[in-house]
């Protein structure tokens, strides 16, 4: 999501170039920013920020309502370019994908030269720029794709992996969020080298499965391959409210109104309604959010009210600005190596 929507709009409308631009909903309808260009980011505007707040930070910000159908079409054009180089493609979203180019014979198999040619082809044919991370394993390729934006590439060779992960800030590792990072800092862990020197058993007892993943990443281990057929893991629906609500009954009314849309989406991917879990998400007036999930073997609307009550126990007097429902699907565990990670900027 690095400026992709904004880049498409600037390409199609030259008057939007060189000015602070964001794609998002109207401030009058409590909209949220989906993405913004680099001119807007200089003012502190960021994705997932309330449009009203973004306009306070940058009064000259131009906010454009997005056209998802157009972005999907452009994403398909980019995918068609990828297909010229490899059939091992794992889309992560409309604007990001892993490519395994191990079997590509172009440029004598050089991943660096292949990545550069892909970037230049996208720029020449579609008028958009792309950033690339080139590495022998997946998570490092993803991290690297963020290191030379916009319109750049970053290469970590196999011999450079150990040095790279040693100095890598833990917040750069996918899956390390604010809460987890705070816990890691409390333990004196800030970089990969800190985790390398830490007792593995203590890490596992504190973080469980994620502790193992973190230990692996900080040792340059990622055995996942590029998945050309990703299994969908969840289905969800949410609603941002025009005004904050306070009571359980108000939240229940909003939640009930989401049932039909959620079930319709769920039946498209899981007709038998056999699932792994159900969840409720609330975002409060201070933009903090909480999620409550319980294991559930079959979809059941009657399971949501109990989850809502548990989520509201964390309200602490705050208003509720968003209500969301989610269903986790039964899926095999991910386990697969990649050379390129692309993020069009």
UniProtKB/TrEMBL annotation:
Q: Where is this site: Substrate discrimination?
A: 5
The record's Gene3D superfamilies line, in alphabetical order, gives: 3.30.70.270, 3.40.1170.60, 5' to 3' exonuclease, C-terminal subdomain, DNA polymerase, Y-family, little finger domain
CDD domains, per database record: PolY_Pol_IV_kappa (cd03586)
Ranges in coiled-coil conformation: none
**Which cofactors are reported in the record for this sequence?**
Mg(2+)
Residues involved in Mg(2+) binding = 95
Recall the GO molecular function terms of this protein's record. Answer: damaged DNA binding; DNA-directed DNA polymerase activity; magnesium ion binding
Q: Which reaction does it catalyse?
A: DNA(n) + a 2'-deoxyribonucleoside 5'-triphosphate = DNA(n+1) + diphosphate
Cofactor, free-text remark: Binds 2 magnesium ions per subunit.
For this protein, what is the EC number?
2.7.7.7
Q: What is its main location?
A: cytoplasm
Q: Which keywords does UniProt give here? A: Cytoplasm, DNA damage, DNA repair, DNA replication, DNA-binding, DNA-directed DNA polymerase, Magnesium, Metal-binding, Mutator protein, Nucleotidyltransferase, Transferase
Q: What class of enzyme is it?
A: transferase
Biological process (GO) annotations? Answer: DNA repair; DNA-templated DNA replication; error-prone translesion synthesis; SOS response
* Location within or outside the cell: Cytoplasm
Q: Which residues form the active site?
A: 96
Q: Which residues form the UmuC domain?
A: 1-177
The subunit structure is: Monomer.
Protein task: Poorly processive, error-prone DNA polymerase involved in untargeted mutagenesis. Copies undamaged DNA at stalled replication forks, which arise in vivo from mismatched or misaligned primer ends. These misaligned primers can be extended by PolIV. Exhibits no 3'-5' exonuclease (proofreading) activity. May be involved in translesional synthesis, in conjunction with the beta clamp from PolIII.
Q: What is this protein called?
A: DNA polymerase IV
Q: Which species does this protein come from?
A: Enterovibrio norvegicus
Q: State the encoding gene.
A: dinB
